[in-house]
Specification:
Length: 340
Amino acid sequence: MIKTVAIVSLSSGTIGEDFVKHEVDLGLKRLKDYGLNVKMMPHAMAGIEYVKNHPKERAEDLLEAFKDDSVDMILCAIGGDDTYRLLPYLFENDELKNAINKKIFLGFSDTTMNHFMLHKVGFNTFYGQSFLADVCEMDKHMLPYTAKYFEELIKTGTIKEITPSDVWYEERTDWSPAALGTAKKSHKNNGFELLQGPNTFSGKILGGCLESIFDIFDNTRYEDTVSLCEKYKLFPDLEDWKGKILLLETSEEQPSPEHYREMLLTLKNTGIFEVISGVLCGKPMDEKYFAEYKQIICEVVDNPSLPIVANVNIGHATPRCIIPFGVDASVDAEKQVIRF
C-alpha cells in the first residue's frame, strides 16, 4: 500500500505555472482523497524556464526521491522533451545506481528516456500515466479506466492484467478554469487489434514514446541528444532486447505518416525487430493517422510472423492503463488481455 508520493518534474516544469494552477490544485486534492501524502520535490514547481535551464536540479530531485525512505512512489509531473540532459548527473559517478531504492516509478511520454535510464541500472518501472495528464483530469473525476489502474497500483504496488477500455476520448481544446468539471467527448473503442502474427506471445515489455526513442538516434530536436545518449549507452543493446516485447506509442505532436515511417526505419536499423518477440502499439491521440500507422508498421517490420498488436490504451490517447516494464507479460489478442 502506497502512503507517500513524490512528484518530480524531470522534463517540463509546467506544473509550476499559474495557467495550470486549477489543474494542479485538483490533482493534489485527489491524491489526498486517496489518503496519500504528497511530497513535492524541491524544484518540481519551479516553472518552465527554471526547470528547462537546470537539468542538474531535476536530476537531484529524482535522486533525492529515491534516497528518501519515506517515499513509496515517484510520480512524474508531465513529459516534455529534454530529460536526456539528466544523463551526466545520473551516470557520471553512478549517482542513479547508488540512489536506487525499491519504490514505484510512474511516468510516460518524454519520461521514456528516464525509463531507459532506470532499466540501465536494473530497476523496473511502470509506464503510462503522469500527475498533470491523469490525476489532474479536469472532469469531475479521473477518467474511470485510468483511475482503475492508478488505484490498483497505489493499493497493491503492481498491475495484474490490462484489458481494453470500452471508450476513448477526444483531446480537450480548452484547458482554462472554465472547463473544470466538463466531460471529454467519448467514442466507442474497438479493443486490441492483432495486425499480424500469432495472437499469443510473451516477454518482458520495454519501450515508450516513439518520438523520444527516435531522439536517441536523431539530432533534429537538440544537437547533443545523439552524443549524450551514445556516451551513456542509453539505448539497450540487442542482447538486452532479445525476447522482449517492444511498446511504441506516438505523442501529442501526432507525427505525419512519413515521419512515423522514418522513425520506425531508424529503429529497424538497430536490428531490434529481428530479436524481439512482439510489438504493442498504443492508440494514437484522437485516432489521427491510425489506419496509416497500422499499415506502415507492418510494412517496415516486413516480417509477417512477428506479432503486432495495436490499439492498446497506453500513451498519449485517453484513457490510459499502466504497463509494468521488466516483468513477464503474456499477450492474448484473442482473449483481449495482457497478463503480468
